[in-house]
């Protein structure tokens, strides 16, 4: 499965609906599914999931998968990942608004992942507890260096995934990357006043 880089606002808008972005994520993570299976998973009705699957298909995010029998219509994701060209999409107010919606979806997904981890942490093996977590790092970088950091981060992930391909101890891991230039004045401005 290939990766997709979006440069058009209409394409990105197709995945900004909360149910669509979650269904696409489920198809990528768990493989093909029917509208009925997705409706059950996301506690909605089949008509709604069918409508959103057709919308995703119209923009090439999903396609019909091989059918197990002649009656069911299974759907699969067409790409392993979707990213977007921030520079191309942020040239218009509409593009900036759609980018903002997608960032909010990413934050919501991160919040769900953190909550699920916290709920399960007591049952995780100690080696997984030891390596799980989050951090926020600050660095002084040029735009070129930030681009290089993202490239190396992605390349390292690909390298480690390949190395663990046959490792029975490997399991799906959620990784989130974000790099933004700091807008506020440096110093203590980002520390809450607790006095």
TrEMBL record:
Residues 10-90 form the HTH arsR-type domain. Pfam families: HTH_20. InterPro entries: ArsR-like_HTH, HTH_ArsR_DNA-bd_dom, WH-like_DNA-bd_sf, WH_DNA-bd_sf. SMART domains: HTH_ARSR. This is Transcriptional regulator.
């Amino acid at each position: 499965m290939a990766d997709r880089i979006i440069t058009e606002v209409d394409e990105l808008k197709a995945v900004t609906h909360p149910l669509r972005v979650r269904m696409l994520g489920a198809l990528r993570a768990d493989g093909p599914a029917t509208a009925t299976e997705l409706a059950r998973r996301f506690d909605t009705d089949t008509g709604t999931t069918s409508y959103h699957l057709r919308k995703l298909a119209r923009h090439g995010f999903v396609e019909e998968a091989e059918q197990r029998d002649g009656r069911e219509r299974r759907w699969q994701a067409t790409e392993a990942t979707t990213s977007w060209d921030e520079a191309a999409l942020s040239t218009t107010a509409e593009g900036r608004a759609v980018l903002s919606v997608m960032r909010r979806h990413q934050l919501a997904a991160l919040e769900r992942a953190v909550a699920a981890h916290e709920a399960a942490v007591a049952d995780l093996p100690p080696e997984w507890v030891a390596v799980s977590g989050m951090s926020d790092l600050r660095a002084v970088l040029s735009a070129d260096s930030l681009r290089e950091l993202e490239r190396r981060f992605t390349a390292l992930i690909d390298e480690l995934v390949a190395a663990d391909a046959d490792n029975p101890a490997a399991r799906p891991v959620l990784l989130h990357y974000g790099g933004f230039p700091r807008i506020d004045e440096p110093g203590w401005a980002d520390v809450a006043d607790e006095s």
